Amino acid sequence: MDNSICQVYEDEIQSLEEEIKLLAEKYEDNQQESTFFSDEEILMSIKSFQREFQGQSKGHESPSDLKAQLESLETDLSFLMKFTGIQFTSHSKKTVEKTTNRTVQKHRLSGNCHSLSFQLEFQLLEMQNKENVSAVITDLSIIMESGEDSDVSKFVSSTEEQGNLLTFFRSLSSYAEWYEHRRCTFLHFK
């Protein structure tokens, strides 16, 4: 009888030791995850969360206000897509590097403008100092169906070198609109 009681206690001790081991591993994993963020980043996140929570509890924006804002943004987006002809079909963002004053994110965009499809891949380098934040586009890569048009290839190459997305989208909008007109005209004569 003593052996059976001892065995029960030993089993219980072993079970508790395994539980302690699992909890210790979990604790180490949590510690490793938290070391990726500096104390300043954690405090800023906490303060941001508190502001959001206080804003929600005070009821600054009701659900109807948010719904109206969303409808307004959707209307604006629809107008811009009709106006420019640019429609994004997918976007992905991945943070490559993050420090206290520097963030590097890799973006992938794909979409079409009128009947031309395009894909963009670039890195966005954001540097923050005390007064402001500056952003620079690096490693811009553009894939576009241009057919045999060498002018489009030259334009894409120069845009990739300059890293100027605004110029690319402005030019793409104009070019794609006239490309569509030419295509329809040639189809009419066939």
UniProtKB/TrEMBL annotation:
Pfam families: CENP-P (PF13096). GO terms for cellular component: chromosome, centromeric region; nucleus. InterPro entries: CENP-P. GO terms for biological process: CENP-A containing chromatin assembly. Keywords: Coiled coil. Residues 6-33 form a coiled coil. This is Centromere protein P. The lineage of its organism: Eukaryota, Metazoa, Chordata, Craniata, Vertebrata. The gene is CENPP.
